[in-house]
Amino acid sequence: MMRHKEEFDADWAVEAYKFESVVLEDGIIQIPEISQFAHRPVEVFIVFKQPDTRRVDAQKRQTMTQFLSKWTGFLKGVDPDDVKLEYLQEKYE
């Protein structure tokens, strides 16, 4: 659980707690023990996490051998430094 506190003036302060939980089938959200705040008003803000689309499925991952067999020799006979120099010379002519 993360804690964040902001003070805007001497009479008013905001404390925010961040935690991750799961909504149960009956709609209940279990939160960490915060009994020290019993009987105090709170504001609840719910953010639904989206699946991480950047992750690659294990089935779609290539082995190192597959990667090397696909890309070996792609720049064969070409010096990358010469290609970079040529590109920069053309760019800044």
Automatic annotation (TrEMBL):
Record protein name field: Uncharacterized protein
Superkingdom as given in the UniProt entry: Bacteria
Species name: candidate division KSB3 bacterium
